[in-house]
Amino acid sequence: MGLVVQKYGGSSVADAASVRRVAKRIVETVANGDDCVVVVSAMGDTTDELLELAEQVSPAPPARELDMLLTAGERISMAVLAMAIADLGYQARSYTGSQAGLITTASHGAAKIIDVTPGRISEAISKGAIPIVAGFQGVSQDTKDITTLGRGGSDTTAVALAAALKADKCEIYTDVDGIFSADPRIAPKARQVPITTYEEMLELAANGAKVLHLRCVEYARRSQMPLWVRSSFSDAPGTLVTTAEFIEGANVEHAIISGVTHDLSEAKITIAGIADKPGRAAAVFELLAASEVNLDMIVQNVSAAGHTDITFTIAMADGERTKVMLLEHQEELGFEELIYDEKVAKISLVGAAMRSHPGVSATTFRALADAGINVEMISTSEIRISVVTRVEEAARAVQAIHTAFGLDADGEAVVYAGTGR
Ligand code: ADP
Ligand code: ASP
Ligand code: MG
After folding, report:
1. Rounded to an integer, what distance in angstroms lies between the CA atom of residue 230 and that of residue 172?
2. pLDDT band at 42, cuts 50/70/90?
3. Range of the domain at 196
4. pLDDT at 97 over 90
5. CA atoms of 271 and 323, how far apart (whole Å)
């Protein structure tokens, strides 16, 4: 008999019928002899709807209250799921993140888990009840306020609980059959990957593959927790995320390219006509650092007549305040114009074996050129090439690169549910 933590995403519990379907799956796991702890996300697009509600009430809601509001979404799903399980004749008890012992930092909207004390969860299991935990939330050690872990954070709740409970594995149930070589929602020819490493999945998640929350993968790697991504709508085995050593030992085929990702969550800022003198770029980036704005890609153009342009990308969520802050300092930074652009996409090709395969850049740029897609920015690392394109070209860019590297599957990938929000 083992212990498994199962996490069900929003699309898996979108309505009453889905909640009953998921309850059946959970009960089957228990009937087969395993102990099961469940983590659940808010139903369907509830979190987005709550955000829209907050926006209608106030353009800048206090972060504490926004977290209180958003955590209500997971409270609804945990309670109804516990009811559906009870209806099948099994005992279930729902717990908020705080009750389940998820202790976090005080940073609202982006809290980090610093400790997990799942006493009540272990107690429920020992009494023969199935614990259902609200994902994406915790309680701050310092302020005692309710916090959230950032969008998609229920995955991280699941892995953190699995690690604290020393579970045998953590299963993330979603609306596709596992991890694919690209988002099947925009690349129908995407190929399901049976097994991958924590490192490769980290790079995919960091570059926009939202199938797993980035911090969930970091957490799983640190605790060496076997992580399965599966569909709650099928019986397909899904994708195992594990160590490189395990994969070598299992002697399974491991792809050179892990995948092609797209990220629509960044904005591009160009500071045009800034003096090409030592210290100017430093002044710009020091200003951003002081406001905790994270930069992603950066390019500086060749200088003309003693002036240059600096272009960089940041999270769109930081866009407005960054724009205002830079314009407030326009005189002292000494630039002519600020161009703010949200209509961009970052497309990345990720693969650990890229470093030893020449011609990867050439193939990527040829594929984009043949598709008539203009590249606005480029950045590379040993295991990744990223380009910025117009947002409306994102799907075509992903498909072109996917095809060029021979990743296309024979059939079409299945997307069972969800709206892709
Ligand atoms: P959930 O509600 O279960 O948390 P998410 O929407 O957060 O679901 O994550 C699942 C979605 O991630 C899929 O529907 C798919 O559109 C998207 N996705 C993006 N990149 C990938 C990828 N490489 N493999 C699989 N799914 C991906
Ligand atoms: N409900 C939250 C969100 O939509 C957390 C999650 O689904 O993981 O971001
Ligand atoms: Mg998710």
Report:
1. 6
2. very high
3. 3-251
4. yes
5. 10
> In whole angstroms, what is the distance from residue 136 CA to residue 209 CA?
18
Pairing assessment for the beta strands 344-350 and 377-381 based on DSSP bridges: unpaired
* Binding site membership of 9 for ligand 1 (Cβ less than 6 Å): yes
The atom of ligand 1 lying closest to the CA of 186 is 16
| pLDDT band at residue 22 under the 50/70/90 scheme | very high
Q: Which residues surround ligand 3, an ion (CB under 5 A)?
A: 9, 152
For 188-225, how does the pLDDT look when each residue is reduced to its tens digit (9 = 90+)? 999 999 999 999 999 999 999 999 999 999 999 999 99
Does residue 263's CB lie within 6 angstroms of at least one atom of ligand 1? no
State residue 202's pLDDT score.
94
> Is 39 contained in some domain?
yes
Count Cβ atoms below 10 Å from residue 251 Cβ, excluding itself: 7
Are 274 and 217 contacting, i.e. CB atoms less than 8 angstroms apart? no
The average confidence (pLDDT) of the chain is 94
| Residue 20 within any structural domain of the chain | yes
- For position 158, which CATH number holds? 3.40.1160.10
Rounded distance between C-alpha atoms, residue 47 and residue 44, angstroms: 8
Q: Which residues contact 159 (CB under 8 A, 6 or more apart)?
A: 5, 170, 216, 219, 220, 223, 225, 227
Within-domain flag for 260: no
The ligand with the least distance to the CA atom of 174 is 1
Mean pLDDT of 391-410: 96
Which residue's alpha carbon is at the smallest distance from atom 9 of ligand 1? 211
Give distance in angstroms: CA of 133 to centre of ligand 2: 13
The closest ligand to the CA of 158 turns out to be 2
Instruction: Confirm whether 165 is domain-assigned.
Output: yes
pLDDT at residue 254 in the model: 66
Contact yes or no for 146/137 (Cβ under 8 A) = yes
Total number of domains in the chain: 1
Q: How far apart are the first and last CA of the chain?
A: 37
Which of 6, 8, 47 to mutate for ligand 2's pocket (most ligand atoms within 8 Å of CB)? 47
Over range 16-25, report the average pLDDT.
97
